[in-house]
Amino acid sequence: QVQLVESGGGLVQPGGSLRLSCAASGTIFSPFTMAWYRQAPGKQRELVADITAAGKTNYADSVKGRFTISRDNAKKTLYLQMDSLKPEDTAVYYCKSPSAWGQGTQVSVSS
Question: What are the b/e assignments for 21-60, b being 16+ CB within 10 Å?
């Protein structure tokens, strides 16, 4: 059974940084594209960034230059470094593999 567990969310002031982690278990990790999504209140879930097995990355326009996705295949862990955070980045952030979603971690950006 595939399990994805996110951590690292919290409350941060505008301009601050957070690093999200997603630990995978019960699955082979390295061959698959992994992704971060987010869902703000009243809005649809949207793709934030994804990363292929080879390390090729893709970002939503709204986070380009501020967020960095990375992966450690040996640790079966996905990361999202979020810098220069804005209030509009407030959302629940989800980790996604081809066959599973994590439970989500809340990120709140407010002064």
Answer: bbbbeebebeebebbbbbeeeeeeeeebbbbeeeeeeebe
